[in-house]
Design brief:
204 residues, six-stranded antiparallel barrel, 13% helix, 43% strand
């Protein structure tokens, strides 16, 4: 489990295919100068742009993960050398829950519609697939590229569901969200509570 509070920004420094078949995954090596890896063991989980991955190798300032072709097809930003990633180590019992409960399982990808300064803050507008729109609500939680955020407005339409988020300067400064531009794809995870509420309401 995670909280959606980004602990560091890493960079992909190596991206190597795990085989010659089209369905082969990739091994990523991520440089993490701002993340303490001293308590990270092989087999531990770290979220990369909101996607939970398992550490298979590490040095004092890098770690490696193996990403399946399926995961690569369902997530954004995990297959290009030089790409920066929002990083969060798995939650430990007793840690502060500063964001909201995040599983690290990407539910889908959204498309940035707008990202612009509004006063001292920034407004981010993302279009989510229609099937995820029912989980988005005013003042509800959503994870965008691994960052726990609060929805300020929701607009449903035929093409999908647009949701609006206000980003304070600190969030923009310490995450990769500052790099977003219209048309870019982002990883989305809907709130666990919304998922279970739907199941409770629809179960026979």
């Amino acid at each position: 489990m995670f909280t959606g509070i980004v602990q560091a920004v890493g960079r992909i420094v190596q991206c190597q295919a795990l085989g010659h078949e089209p369905q082969a995954g990739k091994r990523l090596v991520i440089a993490v100068p701002g993340l303490d890896l001293s308590n990270v063991k092989l087999g531990d989980s770290i979220a990369l742009n909101g996607a939970c991955m398992t550490v298979v190798e590490k040095t004092h300032d890098t770690f490696s993960v193996d990403v399946s072709a399926e995961s690569l097809s369902k997530t954004a930003g995990l297959d290009q050398v030089g790409s920066e990633l929002n990083l969060e180590k798995a939650l430990c019992v007793g840690d502060a829950l500063g964001g909201h409960l995040v599983s690290g399982h990407v539910d889908g990808q959204g498309t940035v519609q707008a990202f612009s300064a509004v006063g001292e803050s920034w407004q981010l507008v993302v279009r989510a697939p229609r099937e995820l729109g029912k989980y988005l609500a005013y003042k509800g939680s959503v994870t965008v590229n691994g960052v726990s955020l609060t929805v300020n407005r929701v607009e449903d339409h035929e093409a999908g569901c647009d949701f609006y988020i206000n980003l304070i300067p600190h969030t923009v400064q310490v995450t990769t969200l500052k790099q977003l531009q219209p048309g870019m794809r982002v990883n989305l995870e809907i709130d666990l509570i919304a998922r279970y509420a739907e199941r409770l309401m629809s179960a026979p």
